[in-house]
């Protein structure tokens, strides 16, 4: 079965770092773009950026450029989303999602279960 | 950045009724790169429509998408109880600035 499995919920303090993961199963991880999406409580979906695990090509939404780092390690079929210094406003659910087509930009048809991040002092 | 504006914000309808949801883009979007998602409370978003009008795998045919340029529509032919949810449009035409609309909530009247 094709699936993305995300790491567990996190509770952090402002200023702390965080790296969450998204592991792909059941398909050739290197050949599909993986995207990250933020959803704050009670709010809509925000596209953060995408990574192509095959060559680590990464694209960021202007809103998130410089705020987060997206990466991937194709050897272990895992994509990452990381922060060097969290803020309370980073508290949200974060989803990874896989594109539909090999190699190209497309809608996201496979989604991870989400990772909830709470940043509070 | 292409801004997607969805309307209405909330749609109150009864089961069996037809739902028409709008997504308007601030500039022209190739229909190849327009998708619709459904999200129920506490659940992960689910892809319904891609390429503006193609149903994703397993999506019932009561869901249909149409439109081009700056105006796109998601139609739910006859609402089933499980269709009450929030719906988002998304454009993935202008890398790196892919965007989602703010969502339309379809609620039971």
What's a concise summary of this model?
Chain A is mostly beta strands and 121 residues long. Chain A is built from no helices and eleven strands.
- β-strand number of chain B: 10
How much helical structure, as a percent, in the residues of chain B?
under 10%
Distance between the termini of chain B: 35 Å
Largest interface (CB < 8 Å)? A-B, 24 and 26 residues
What's the pLDDT, averaged over the residues of chain B?
95
Count the helices of chain B. How many? 0
Radius of gyration of chain B: 13 Å
- The coarse silhouette of chain A is globular
State the low-pLDDT regions of chain A, or none: none
Quaternary organization: heterodimer
Q: Which blocks of ≥5 consecutive residues of chain B have pLDDT under 50?
A: none
Shape of chain B: globular
Structural Rg of chain A: 14 Å
Spell out the helices and strands of chain B N to C: EEEEEEEEEE
Layout of helices and strands:
The complex is a heterodimer of chains A (121) and B (109).
Chain A: E1 3-6, E2 10-12, E3 18-25, E4 34-39, E5 45-52, E6 57-60, E7 69-73, E8 78-83, E9 92-99, E10 108-111, E11 115-119
Chain B: E1 4-7, E2 10-13, E3 19-29, E4 34-39, E5 46-50, E6 54-55, E7 63-76, E8 86-91, E9 99-100, E10 104-108
Parallel strand pairs in B: 2-10
Antiparallel strand pairs in B: 1-3, 3-7, 4-5, 4-8, 5-6, 8-9, 8-10
Detailed description of the structure:
The complex is a heterodimer of chains A (121) and B (109). With 121 residues, chain A is an all-beta fold. Chain A contains no helices and 11 strands. The termini of chain A are far apart. The mean pLDDT of chain A is 96. In chain A, strands 2, 4, 5, 6, 9, 10 and 11 form a 7-stranded mixed beta sheet that branches. A 4-stranded antiparallel beta sheet of chain A has the order 1-3-8-7, with no helix packed on it. By secondary structure, chain B is mainly β. Chain B has no helices and 10 strands. In chain B, strands 2, 4, 5, 6, 8, 9 and 10 form a 7-stranded mixed beta sheet that branches. In chain B, strands 1-3-7 form a 3-stranded antiparallel beta sheet, with no helix packed on it. The model of chain B has no long low-confidence stretch (mean pLDDT 95). The chains are: A mainly beta (121), B mainly beta (109). Chain A binds chain B through residues 35, 37, 44-47, 49-50, 59-62, 95, 97, 100, 105-109, 111-114, and chain B through 1, 33, 35, 37, 39, 44-47, 50-51, 56-57, 86, 88, 90, 92, 95-103.
């Amino acid at each position: 079965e094709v699936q993305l499995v995300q790491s567990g919920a996190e509770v952090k303090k402002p200023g702390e770092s965080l790296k969450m993961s998204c592991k792909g199963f059941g398909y050739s991880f290197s050949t599909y773009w993986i995207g990250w999406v933020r959803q704050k409580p009670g709010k809509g979906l925000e596209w953060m950026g995408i990574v192509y695990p095959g060559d680590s090509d990464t694209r960021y939404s202007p809103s998130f450029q410089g705020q987060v780092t997206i990466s991937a390690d194709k050897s272990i079929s895992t994509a990452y989303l990381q922060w060097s210094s969290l803020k309370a406003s980073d508290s949200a659910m974060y989803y990874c999602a896989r594109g539909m087509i090999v190699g190209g930009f497309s809608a996201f048809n496979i989604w991870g279960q989400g990772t909830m991040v709470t940043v509070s002092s | 950045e292409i801004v997607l504006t969805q309307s209405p914000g909330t749609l109150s309808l009864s089961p069996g009724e037809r739902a028409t949801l709008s997504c308007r883009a601030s500039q022209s979007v190739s229909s190849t790169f327009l998708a619709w998602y459904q999200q129920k409370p506490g659940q992960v978003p689910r892809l319904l429509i891609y390429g503006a009008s193609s149903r994703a795998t397993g999506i019932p045919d009561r869901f249909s998408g149409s439109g081009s340029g700056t105006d796109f529509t998601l139609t739910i032919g006859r609402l089933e109880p499980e269709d009450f949810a929030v719906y988002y449009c998304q454009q993935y035409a202008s890398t790196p600035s892919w965007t989602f609309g703010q969502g339309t909530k379809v609620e039971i009247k």
